[in-house]
Amino acid sequence: MSSFSRIGGYSLIEMLVVISVLAILATAAMPLVELTAKRNKERELKLALSEIRQAIDAYKSAYDKGLIDRSATVSGYPPNLNVLVSGARSNQAADGQLAFLLRRMPRDPFARPGIAAEQTWGLRSYASPPERPQPGADVYDVHSTSTEVGMNGVPYSQW
């Protein structure tokens, strides 16, 4: 009988193999994490654009029906994005009550942090052509100011 007993455990080579396999798996998973993050931002962008566009359309509809003050713009679209949150003067109430169309202005998820939500969006006025959106006296539409391209191949600024 030997006086030496074998102590159980992992050898250095076994540990290196396990660490190498884990590193390869982590490297393979990183693109998936980035893809998921981008997909979530795209979903946020779609929802934010939809929410703002619905509020712009509701403002125009209320303007056309005479429910809000008609002196703001000639086109009937809001003069700026802030009006959707801060409220438009209602013609229905004698006390100058405001009609609110958004609770808060959503941010462009692809915009730099630290910028006010209203400033993260590119604006298109009613007088602006669709192929070259430009700000103007009113807000007819909004778009992302990001220069990135979506997973569908369309730049975010054209969504």
From TrEMBL:
InterPro entries: Bac_GSPG_pilin, N_methyl_site, Pilin-like. It holds the Pfam family N_methyl. PROSITE patterns: PROKAR_NTER_METHYL. One of its GO terms (biological process) is protein secretion by the type II secretion system. One of its GO terms (cellular component) is type II protein secretion system complex. Keywords: Membrane, Methylation, Transmembrane, Transmembrane helix. The chain crosses the membrane at residues 12-33. This is General secretion pathway protein GspG.
